[in-house]
Fold this sequence. Notes:
This protein is mainly alpha-helical. It is built from ten helices and four strands, in the order ββαααααααααββα. It has one domain. The strands form two sheets. Strands 1-2 form a two-stranded antiparallel ribbon. Strands 3-4 form a two-stranded antiparallel ribbon. Helix 1 (26-43) packs across helix 6 (124-158) and helix 2 (45-68) packs antiparallel against helix 3. It is globular, with a radius of gyration of 22 Å.
Amino acid sequence: MADNDKEGVVASGPEGSGTMGTVPRTWEQVLKLTRFQFRDYLRSRRFLLMLGIVACLGAILTAIVGYYRPVALMVDAPTFYSSIWGGGVGIVIVFAGVIFGGDALAGEFQNKTGYFLMSLPIRRSAIYVGKYIAALAAALIAVVFFALIVIGNGVYYFGASDISYVFAESFLLAFVYLLALLGATFLFSSLFKTSTYATLVVAVLFIFGFTLLQAVIADLVKVEPWFIISYAQGIVSYPFLSTLPPHVVTTIIPGRGGGTFTTYNPTYLEGILIMLGYFVITAVIGLFMFEHEEFT
């Protein structure tokens, strides 16, 4: 295994050709790997599966809203977008992270493709970043697809005049959440050498685990779960709200048992910092682990 991290290294051309080639710079390696990996995503069944999930979710939401016309959603455009987009985009991002990032690195070990990549004079960091950007681009397509479905419904019921920079602000927050979730997904993917285990663990954690853990910590321990990534996702709907929810809400439970029920809501700045912190920390740790992992 030759993991050559030096730029500008001279490599021999094909045997008998007498030619010499220069190893591409790191950013060139990243661009090439991103392009090839993104092309593979577009041609894969998982990409069609992700679009199918978004289409089904959009069809269900469209049918329910169109048939029942729930009063709580049809008050005005901000309420509609806050509920449909703010509540649905988190699900789309989680599924996209699981599908595109769950086995992105673990698959290199299981399928032995890492042996071919590592035998080339390519930086491991270029492989990691290239795969991350490709997964981000593929996941972003799914998020945009869902956004178009939501906007289409919103335009039908409230007209195009109610679409403004507010939706763009919420979309930007969703993009930051996607960055953070993919960073955490790649970290977990780098921990395993079997794609099945990596995908299963990531799916359980992000679909059930973190949500359940957040509820337990907030309700039983009475501690703000600021260290859980799913906690920060709530700020995606904040741009549509005229008044932000209180940071801490304590509800008294009536009856003989009594007690209180505590709910925490992240502040705007807190939510952004949590997502950016998750993105930076998980990306750095995941890259470190991938660079020091042995292909044996």
